[in-house]
Amino acid sequence: MIDVEHLSKTFRVARKDPGFLGSLRSMFRREVVEVTAVRDVSFRVAEGEIVGLIGANGAGKTTLVKMLAGIVHPSGGRASVLGFDPWARDDRFRAQIALVMGQKAQLWWDLPPADSLLLLKEIYRLPDAQYRDTLDELTTVLGLGDELRTPVRKLSLGQRMKAELVAALLHRPRVVFLDEPTIGLDVTAQRAVRDFLLRYRERHRPAIVLTSHSMDDIERLCPRVLILKDGVLVHDGALADVVARYGDDKVVTVTLDPAAAAAPDPRALDGLGTVLETSATTVRLRIPRARVAAAAGELLRRLPVADLLIEETDIATIIERIFSERERPVP
Amino acid sequence: MSLRLYLDAAATQARRSLAYRVDFWVEAAVVFLVSLGVAWSLWTAVFDATGAARIGGFDRPGMVLYVVTVLLAAKLVRGADLGDAAVSSDVFEGGLTRYLLYPASYRGLKYAEHVGGLVPALVQLVLFGAPFLLLLSTPEAPVSPGSLAMGAVSLLVANLLCWLLLFPFHCVAFWAEGVWTLVLAVRFVGDLLGGVMIPLGAFPAWTQPWHAALPFRHLYAEPVETLLGRRDVATWATDLAAAGAWCLVLAVVGQATFLAGRRRYTGPGI
Question: Does the beta carbon of A62 lie under 8 angstroms from any beta carbon of chain B?
Answer without folding.
Answer: yes
